[in-house]
């Protein structure tokens, strides 16, 4: 069975999903198997997506108009597609930069595998830079005084560190020169971006 997912960012009616809907129906999705959200792609708790993922069964294929309709965070996309693959569900992207992704084919699986490898490589680089940065900070020593505010560089270091089980929050805050409150306002305990963290990176 083919199941389609649509998303627009705003819920005020200023954005329409007609183009996505027409494309999904043209691709063979029955109108009764369409799910939609009117929310940011950075949100993982989208009700339409949750219902869509629950409706999928082994052998089904999830179809989206563009890859960014499914999500705008690479880690979330990788995890979502790995979850689908593990359940025996395919993913097909109709247009845009991800149009070569069709995990029901060998070529499509290869393309997504490259994406996943690049994402893992990026995470390893961030972790390595974090370890080197913290070691350098310890070697220089830290002076007392008012903590510095969060910066994009500190935020990326915090994201990588918070995902590591051996990380001590108090030590991390000291090394980065921020308060625990500032840390948790930007990053969750498992290293996921929070609202203030998203805003900070968007200002770069």
UniProtKB/TrEMBL annotation:
GO terms for molecular function: DNA binding; DNA strand exchange activity. Residues 1-141 form the Resolvase/invertase-type recombinase catalytic domain. GO terms for biological process: DNA integration. The keyword DNA-binding applies. Keywords: DNA integration, DNA invertase, DNA recombination, DNA-binding. It comes from the Bacteria. The active site is at residue 9. Coiled coil: none annotated. Belongs to the site-specific recombinase resolvase family. This is Recombinase family protein. It comes from Vibrio qingdaonensis.
């Amino acid at each position: 069975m083919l199941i389609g997912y649509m998303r627009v960012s705003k819920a005020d009616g200023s954005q329409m999903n007609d183009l996505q809907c027409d494309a999904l129906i043209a691709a063979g999705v029955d109108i009764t198997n369409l799910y939609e959200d009117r929310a940011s792609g950075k949100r993982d708790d989208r009700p339409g997506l949750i219902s869509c993922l629950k409706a999928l069964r082994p052998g089904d294929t999830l179809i989206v108009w563009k890859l960014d309709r499914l999500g705008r965070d690479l880690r979330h996309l990788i995890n979502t597609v790995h979850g689908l693959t593990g359940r025996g569900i395919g993913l097909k992207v109709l247009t845009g930069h991800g149009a070569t992704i069709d995990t029901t084919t060998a070529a499509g699986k290869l393309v997504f595998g490259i994406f996943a490898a690049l994402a893992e490589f990026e995470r390893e680089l961030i972790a390595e830079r974090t370890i080197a940065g913290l070691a350098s900070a310890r070697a220089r020593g830290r002076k007392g005084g008012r903590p510095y505010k969060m910066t994009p560089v500190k935020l990326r270091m915090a994201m990588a560190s918070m995902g590591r089980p051996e990380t001590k929050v108090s030590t991390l805050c000291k090394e980065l020169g921020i308060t625990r409150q500032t840390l948790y306002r930007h990053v969750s305990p498992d290293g996921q971006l929070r609202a203030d963290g998203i805003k900070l990176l968007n200002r770069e």
